[in-house]
Amino acid sequence: MLNLRVGFARAVSFLFFTCALSGIAVVQAQEPAAERSEEVITKSISENEWKGHLTFLASFDQGWKADIGGRDRRIHTAKDLNRQQYVPENQIKHVEIVEKAGRYGHALSFQKKTSQSLFYWGDSVGYRPENWSGTLSVWMKLDPNKDLRPGYCDPVLLTDKQWDQSALFIDFDKDLPRDFRLGLFPDFETWNPKRIPWDAIAVDQRPMVVVKSPPFSSDHWTHVCFTWQDANRLDNALGQASLYLNGQAMGTHRQVLRYTWELDKVAIQLGIHYIGLMDELATFDVALTPQQIKQLYELPGGLAGAAAAGL
Ligand SMILES: [Ca+2]
To answer: pTM score > 0.85 for this model?
Structure first.
């Protein structure tokens, strides 16, 4: 993703720019998640059932293997972001588990930028070809403006293809001070049918939720959570996705969310060009409500603790 984004020419004429954008099948509107309709809220599960919808969990407390996962819970190391060549287990010497350094228990520590890529298989995340909703949660500890090397950084990327095709991700922009973003890139033909180069798409037309001056720090943990709902609607109704930091709603993006995944290729990639600590990476097969996300943020023993207690 990173090479493509960086590689596109930035010098694009305004005329081309204006015409090109008219072809983008993206309806974008950002609004606080608290303003979402009552209909959406009431479709969610009850306040006490949400932990039972945990579909993937990597707490790093017992090692690299995911606590909860699908057909293969081992982490894998890919030669690059394309994941065409990969081997089981972590092979990157600059990434390690640090005991008791986590938000809860142990944590992953990424110490250098690398072209290799770590991932877990994502077949358990709860993908549905019709009426799909979900949540991803992770804790991060870094100062993005000091710790990261130049270029984009994607702490978590969920896809069976790549960043701009059937993908959901969180990233830091490459320009200082770095923005934090939630990227919603459904099947490529649905969001960019005219194949407009990325850098020719105006910032406010991009399918993302953008947070200026996000509250990340190397001194404390930051909880990152995003939800998606009404993806893969048969009637092509708009779906929506919302980003939360430390339990607070940061914004919502609406568009048709058509994701066509080959389940055995879905990967939860983590730590792409990331330098910092990471803990408790998890997914749910429902879109948690703002109240449930606040509960998750304040969970005393974390999800691993909740899982050990029988959720
Ligand atoms: Ca942990």
So the answer is: yes
